[in-house]
Design a protein that fits this description.
Layout lengths: L13 E5 L4 H17 L2 E8 L9 H30 L8 E7 L2 H11 L4 E5 L14 H8 L4 E4 L20 E5 L4 H17 L2 E8 L10 H12 L5 E7 L2 H11 L4 E6 L1 E2 L4 E2 L3 H9 L4 E5 L9
Parallel strand pairs: 1-2, 1-4, 2-3, 4-5, 6-7, 6-9, 7-8, 9-12
Antiparallel strand pairs: 5-12, 10-11
Helix pairs in contact: 3-4, 7-8
Length: 307
């Protein structure tokens, strides 16, 4: 069971990055490596090899094929090591990197490995799709974000980046963080993480409350929400509170563009009875259209005493 400590800063001791040798996972690997360097964290690079024998195989054939897959795992790890070295260059030698090869579905592999390694952060690359209502329908990234018990950083190409992808060993260019808030416990959790990161990198924190047309959430007003934000963040960082009126997702994305934010930090509420996230339109649309990387913080908290 993961525990939380609201008095401790976000300081992941272990980061997990899923690698599938694609261009997108290479970008995620660079983010994870830059973050591991900045936090002095151990980096676990995972590759999931999905094995699903044809239905017509006999038990004997399946057993033989499984033995071949197991025997090939060592060679696959060597390939993964070489790939990481090629992607990260000199930075690889400066990091404490562990490699994991798992057989099975990537989502299960990422979640199980995150728990086993006590990862405080998962970093993943994904294709953000602008069309259609559902985000990454059926994808690894979507399912990991929905089920993870630790924060998940989601990055994709063709967006504003806070790393130099050509030189991941260079300092993080993290100057402005945007964290939307509302009257929920998970917003408090996300705001603490955002403030901690902003303080660590001396970045400006923009905390925004978006008021939907025709409604104001109970207990929220510009004055008391700003006071709540400043009380919660304390002196951890400089805070710029904004109130926006309009559809929450649209206002968050627009504000991220206007403020040239480097990172959006969002909270995701989990429903224990269903074992999945309550995935509202706001979170879904922000993830789909965000021009910057998004860090999704679950209500269950963070590992490694990171919060």
């Amino acid at each position: 069971m993961l525990t939380t400590n609201a008095d401790q800063p976000f300081q992941p001791a272990t980061m997990l990055c899923a690698a599938d040798f694609s261009e997108l996972s290479n970008l995620a690997l660079k983010y994870a490596a830059a973050g591991a360097l900045a936090y002095g964290a151990r980096l676990v690079v995972l590759h999931a090899s999905h094995f699903e024998p044809p239905r017509y195989f006999t038990p004997g054939q399946i057993e033989a094929l499984q033995a071949q897959v197991h025997a090939a795992a060592g060679a696959l790890e060597a390939t993964l090591r070489q790939h990481v070295q090629a992607v990260l260059g000199e930075l690889a030698a400066r990091l404490n990197i562990s490699f994991r090869i798992v057989t099975g579905h990537a989502v299960d592999g990422v979640l199980a490995t995150a728990a086993e390694e006590k990862a405080g952060l998962i970093v993943m690359g994904t294709h953000g799709r602008g069309g259609g209502r559902r985000l990454w329908l059926g994808s690894v990234a979507e399912n990991v974000v929905r089920q993870a018990e630790v924060p998940v950083a989601v990055v994709r190409q063709k967006q504003h980046e806070f790393i130099d992808a050509a030189r991941p060993e260079s300092p993080l260019r993290l100057q402005t963080i945007l964290c939307p808030v509302n009257a929920t416990p998970v917003a408090r959790m996300a705001l603490r993480v955002a403030a901690s990161i902003a303080g660590a990198f001396q970045a400006r924190l923009i905390s925004a409350c978006a008021i939907e047309p025709g409604a104001r959430p109970a207990g929220l007003s510009s004055a008391n929400t700003e006071a709540w934000v400043r009380d919660l963040t304390g002196n951890a960082c400089a805070v710029d509170f904004r109130e926006r009126h309009g559809r929450a997702a649209e206002e968050i994305v627009a504000l991220a563009q206007e403020a040239k934010a480097d990172l959006i930090v969002l909270g995701a509420q989990r429903q224990p009875s269903l074992g999945s996230w309550l995935w509202g339109d706001t979170t879904e649309l922000v993830l789909r259209h965000a021009p910057v990387p998004v860090l999704v913080v679950p209500r269950t908290g963070v590992a490694d005493g990171a919060l």
